[in-house]
Write a structure and sequence with these properties.
430 residues; alpha/beta; Rossmann fold; 7-stranded parallel beta sheet; 37% helix; nucleic acid binding; nucleotide-binding; RNA-helicase_DEAD-box_CS; ATP binding; helicase
Length: 430
């Protein structure tokens, strides 16, 4: 029970309103230690309740503190706008019965209204690193009184190139503070290096990723010949699977835009989300997907972290994720809070070894599925190593360009076998 943590009545009232009955494993492990003001490195599976694990002790600390006219007391850094917005909503829900104020600062919005919010002296600032640095440079935000710092999704933040930005922000904070660093993995050298640079030497590690499973999520793979074959498979799934909402992941924004256009051509109502969308566009897409009846969202990995939307019971990896952690976060958009979910990944010959590597990295086994009506020519590698990976084809030495050209198979004409084919211009006969 949450009452075991000796939280204030205002927080317990908010928890009751949210219908939370029992703390999750990560909350049980983190909250008592965070209340002791220890520096912590945290890692837990997606959907584990990690946000509340650091928000509840943060809010409790501010409630117990005598309120005076200080600058920002708590800062939560997030790698993306979507995750920052979600954290802001979570914080507001938990602080609903307190007088603690929080704001969110991200790119894509005007600096002036954000500066006006900062001048109101909120206790908690939730921000993306780039935009916060702009306000720091303009001397619109001050962190010398900061007592509580959270770096959320640190691995993702470093992947996006924010290492120096984070260090510059930390330099503006007072050294006597509590720091919590959250990451999908605590074995990443870059994450450990950042931890050494910004945390106390006795910072405690809490890693629950190895003990937490996601039995409510079925993970399947479907072998595909090429991108056109994937499009036909996707069409079949969207017509035959039962789902309330689905996210279809691509590896790049260009691929996401292209797939969105293909789906629209075939009369699906779909929106596309990626990092190059303007803030207002992204906000509009998320509103449609959250509560306006939109069932299909095509996205790059910008949506793989931080989105906590009810009703996503199907995830389709049109392109296989490049890294195990990215796959984990994609799949984690479904099966939230113990509900059942299905994750389906398309795998071509070029993606086989990537799939096997991620399977071993995450310690999972993908269920292989076949759609008989759309069975392709790729049925798996002919020769496998002991690891399960396919042997690579060896190139002949000293082969001339002419020999290479002769060895290339002739291009086959593209056909449409009952699914998606080449997009052609519609005529009046159509």
């Amino acid at each position: 029970m949450f009452t075991h943590f000796e939280l204030s009545e205002s927080l317990l009232k908010a928890i009751t309103q949210l219908n939370w009955e029992q703390p999750t494993d990560i909350q049980q492990a983190v909250i008592p230690k965070a209340l002791e003001q220890k520096d912590l490195l945290l890692s837990a599976s997606t959907g584990s309740g990690k946000s509340a694990a650091f928000l509840l002790p943060l809010l409790e600390r501010l409630i117990r503190r005598k309120k005076d006219n200080t600058d920002t007391l708590a800062l939560i850094l997030s790698p993306t706008r979507e995750l920052a917005s979600q954290l802001f909503k979570d914080c507001q829900a938990l602080a609903a019965f307190t007088d603690i104020n929080s704001i969110v600062i991200t790119g894509g919005e005007s600096l002036k209204p954000q500066a006006a919010k900062i001048r109101k002296n909120p206790e908690i600032v939730i921000a993306t690193p780039g935009r916060l640095l702009e306000h720091l440079t303009a001397k619109q935000v001050f962190l010398q009184d900061l007592e509580y710092l959270v770096i959320d999704e640190a691995d993702r933040m470093l992947d996006m190139g924010f290492h120096e930005d984070v260090l510059n922000i930390v330099k503006a904070c007072q050294s006597q503070r509590q720091t919590l660093l959250c990451s999908a993995t605590l074995s990443d050298p870059a994450v450990l290096r950042l931890a050494r640079e910004i945390m106390t030497p006795d910072a405690e590690h809490i890693d629950l990723t190895e003990t937490q499973e996601q039995p409510s999520i079925r993970q399947q793979i479907i072998l595909a010949d090429d991108r056109k074959h994937k499009e036909r498979l996707l069409d079949w799934l969207l017509q035959n699977e039962t789902y309330d909402k689905t996210i279809i992941f691509c590896n790049t924004r260009d691929q996401a835009d292209a797939l969105g256009n293909v789906l629209r051509y075939h009369d699906y109502r779909v929106e596309v989300l990626h990092g190059e969308k303007q803030h207002q566009q992204r906000k509009k897409v998320m509103q449609a997907f959250t509560n306006q009846g939109l069932k299909i969202l095509v996205a790059s990995d910008v949506a793989a972290r931080g989105l906590d939307i009810d009703g996503i019971n199907l995830v389709i990896n049109f392109d296989f994720a490049r890294k195990g952690d990215d796959h984990l976060h994609r799949v984690g958009r479904t099966g939230r809070a113990g509900t059942e979910g299905l994750a389906i990944s398309f795998v071509t010959a070029n993606e086989w070894n990537l799939m096997v590597g991620i399977e071993r990295y995450l310690g999972i086994h993908f269920e292989q599925r076949q759609i008989k009506a759309l069975k392709g020519s790729f049925t798996g590698p002919k020769k496998l190593k002991a690891s399960g990976k396919a042997y690579g084809s060896k190139k002949k030495k000293n082969s001339s360009k002419a020999d290479v050209k002769k060895s290339r198979p002739a291009k086959k004409p593209t056909t449409d076998s009952g699914g998606f084919g080449v997009i052609r211009k519609k005529t009046k006969k159509d």
